[in-house]
Design goal:
Layout: H1 4-9, H2 15-36, E1 40-47, H3 55-74, H4 76-79, E2 82-86, H5 94-106, E3 114-121, H6 123-139, H7 150-154, E4 167-170, E5 189-192, H8 202-213
Parallel strand pairs: 1-3, 2-3, 4-5
C-alpha cells in the first residue's frame, strides 16, 4: 500500500494525513474483497525498514494500528474475518502486542476472508527466522536434514498453512518487491499502478483482478 506520504505532500499536508486516508482505503478494499469471495489477502502495512522513519511518524502509525485493530473487532460479526499479523514484533510495545494477540485469538474460528496484515515485516527477516526454527528442530531431532523440502520449509514461515499468493498488487508507481513475501511469491503474478494508495479504488482493484484472469500461468512449464 504505497504512496501515503507522497499523496499528502502533493496536497501540502502532513504525511500523517496520508496514512489516515490510506486506512480508509484499506477498509474499503478489504470489505470489497470479502464481498467478492476472495479467500486470502495480505496487506503490507509496515516493513522492518520503516522503523528507520522519523520517530514522530512511526509513533503516529502505531496509534493508527491500535485504532484499526479496534475497528476490525467491530466488523468481525459483519464480515467474519480471520485476522493474522505477520512480522517481527521485538520493537512493538506490550500493550500493542496484547491487542494483536487478542484480535487473532477471537477471530480464529471465523470462516470468512483470511486477512493478513504484514506489520514490522521483512521477507529476509522472515526467512532467517524460519531457518533458526528449522535448525532448532534439527538439533532436537524433530526433523532430519534429508527430509527438508520446499513444502517442509514453508511450514516454518509466518504464512504456514496458507496458499502462496496468486497476485501481487503494488500501488504508487514503484516496480519492485520491497522485501515482501519473497519466498511465497516465486510464481505470483505482478500488477502495479501509478495510483497512490489513498486514491486506489474498488474499480482499479477489479481492473487488476480482471487483468489477472486473462494471464496464462505456466509455473515454468510450456503450457
Amino acid at each position: 500500500m504505497d504512496g501515503n506520504g507522497r499523496w499528502a505532500k502533493s496536497r501540502g499536508l502532513f504525511r500523517s494525513v496520508g496514512h489516515v486516508f490510506g486506512v480508509k482505503v484499506f477498509r474499503t478494499i478489504v470489505e470489497h474483497a470479502s464481498n467478492l469471495g476472495i479467500k486470502y489477502m495480505t496487506f503490507y502495512a509496515f516493513s522492518t525498514e520503516n522503523w528507520n522513519r522519523p520517530s514522530r511518524e512511526v509513533s503516529f502509525i502505531m496509534k493508527i494500528l491500535k485504532k484499526e485493530i479496534y475497528n476490525l473487532n467491530l466488523n468481525f460479526k459483519k464480515y467474519n474475518f480471520i485476522v493474522n499479523f505477520l512480522g517481527n514484533y521485538t520493537k512493538i510495545s506490550k500493550d500493542t502486542l496484547d491487542l494483536i494477540h487478542n484480535v487473532q485469538e477471537i477471530s480464529r474460528n471465523n470462516t470468512g476472508l483470511v486477512l493478513n496484515i504484514a506489520f514490522s515485516y521483512g521477507s529476509r527477516d522472515e526467512i532467517i527466522n524460519s531457518i533458526k526454527l528449522l535448525y532448532e528442530d534439527i538439533i532436537n531431532l524433530k526433523i532430519k536434514k534429508e527430509d527438508i523440502t520446499e513444502e517442509v520449509f514453508s511450514n516454518y514461515l509466518y504464512t504456514r498453512g496458507m496458499p502462496d499468493p496468486d497476485l501481487i498488487i503494488r500501488t504508487g508507481g514503484e516496480a519492485r518487491m520491497s522485501n515482501f513475501l519473497l519466498w511465497q511469491s516465486a510464481y505470483a503474478e505482478f500488477w502495479n499502478t501509478n495510483t497512490l494508495w489513498p486514491d486506489f479504488s474498488t474499480e482499479e482493484f477489479e481492473k487488476a483482478l480482471d487483468d489477472y484472469t486473462k494471464r496464462k500461468r505456466k509455473f515454468g512449464n510450456i503450457t
